[in-house]
Amino acid sequence: MKIAIIGGGAIGLLTASYLAEVGHEMMLFTRMQDQASIINEQGIERIKKGSIAKFHMKAEKLTGSSQLNDYQVVFVCVKQYDNAIVLPLLQHYSGKIIFMQNGYVNLHSLSEWMATKQLYLGIIEHGAVRFELNHVHHHGIGKVRIGGLPLAPAFELQTSADFPIEFSDRIIDDMMDKLVINAVINPITAVYKVSNGELLRRPRLIRLTEQLCQEVCRTLNMSYQEKLEKIRHICNITSENHSSMLVDIQNKRLTEVDVILGYIAEEARIKQIAVPLIDTFYAQIRALEVR
Fold first, then answer.
1. What are the beta bridge partners of residue 29?
2. pTM score, whole prediction
3. Which residues contact 120 (CB under 8 A, 6 or more apart)?
4. Residue 102 DSSP label
5. Which of 178, 227, 230, 252 is the catalytic position?
6. Residue 178 annotated among the catalytic residues of the structure
7. Disulfide check for 222: which of 69, 110, 198, 217 has CB 3.0–4.6 Å away?
8. pLDDT tens across 189-244, in order?
């Protein structure tokens, strides 16, 4: 299958490497020409459990003249604040579009496309960090769930055993479950500059995790105990990982706080629910960002 990835961050590189590994014809569209040039020359290096694998594929800088219709599937692996740049380039694309993004995906903004395009949400549970423009470290193995919006059909997509992809008929629920996890783990680890596992070890962070989870679940009308156990499980299996929000702040990039805590804070305001911790962490992350 001919597949394009838009976005050369950790998730874009990781996804491209695993799909190339099983024989898909890959194209990686990047924001920077430097990154495209390096990948064309050297390929993508994926590091997992101390071993290095290299995958060669084509790459080019994404522009208005990029030939996206040459590909049957396009994975959108950019931050949501970059959708304003990417979506116009997909206006005339006729294949399958999979949005692999954190936070609450604004379905209203895609409503006009739902009747005419094959749209999918992708929820990724893997841990990955990009070290160089073409190096990605895979340090948390999970799964990828994909679901259609609203009636796009499931389709077969060959992939690796270490990068399983399954189709979900409850993808909106999956998105909200991932939102709760991101809304608790990301801001605490980013503000306190700690790995995920510290939320299970430090008494103060254990309490903050519980309290922030309570506010998030109350706002979104979700089961607190069920979500807290899931958060603890994720922190345990990704103990040494750094959250994407912490990595963004360390690298002086914008975070996705607006589509994570910002969305939940707005929901709380509409429902007239007091959420002092959510408001505090949202303000702290915004203060730490480079804008």
1. 6, 60
2. 0.91
3. 96, 97, 98, 99, 146, 147, 148, 149, 152, 171
4. S
5. 178
6. yes
7. 217
8. 999 999 999 999 999 999 999 999 999 999 999 999 999 999 999 999 888 889 99
